[in-house]
Amino acid sequence: MVERSNRTRATSVPPRVTVLPKSRVELGQPNVLICIVDNIFPPVINVTWQRRGHAVTEGVVQTSFHSQPDHSFLRFHYLPFVPSADDVYGCRVEHWGLDRPLLRLWEPQLPSPLPDTTETLVCALGPALGLVGFLAGLVLIVTGTCLSRAPRQ
To answer: What is the widest separation between alpha-carbon atoms in the chain?
Structure first.
């Protein structure tokens, strides 16, 4: 076990795990998922990637441990991937500070399509505003014509 210099047993701290893409996700476009594991102490950890519940090892890269000011450690794990709508990825972390492995899931956040009512509303507003503009112009022309024919005193 890990011990401190005064021979007291070091306490294991549960790590924090965050999963995010390197850049904006577009379906079918290559990207990289980043699993950030921080608050690691002691610096002994096992991190694996999953896709739809199955282990992924191809292309996985990890950094060395980075020391933090609070004497904990930070580590980055990278997974190149091509996102599809039904993908679910996971970063699974095993550490002495955890009772059981921690699995942080990530799935593409797709923009929700506009509902049909919005599309219909936009299509109806265009001609309606055009008609209002036409009628306002017609009223102004008629009024201007009438005023110019009126006798002046």
So the answer is: 112
pLDDT tens-digit profile of 34-43?
Answer: 999 999 999 9
Q: Is 104 helix (H, G, I), strand (E, B) or coil?
A: strand
Distance CA(31)–CA(23), nearest Å, equals 7
37 in Cβ contact with 93 (< 8 Å): yes
> Torsions phi, psi of 52, nearest 5?
55, 40
**Reduced to 3 states, what is the DSSP secondary structure of residue 137?**
helix
The CB-side HSE value for 58 (13 A sphere, CA atoms) comes to: 4
Runs of H (alpha helix) within the chain:
116-149
| pLDDT at 65 > cutoff 90 | yes
Burial label, 81 (beta-carbon count in 10 A; 0-12, 13-18, 19+): buried
In one-letter notation, the amino acid at residue 23 is S
Q: Can you give the pTM of this predicted structure?
A: 0.67
> What is the spatial distance between Cα 52 and Cα 33, in angstroms, rounded to a whole number?
14
Compute the distance between CA of residue 96 and CA of residue 40 in angstroms, rounded to an integer: 10
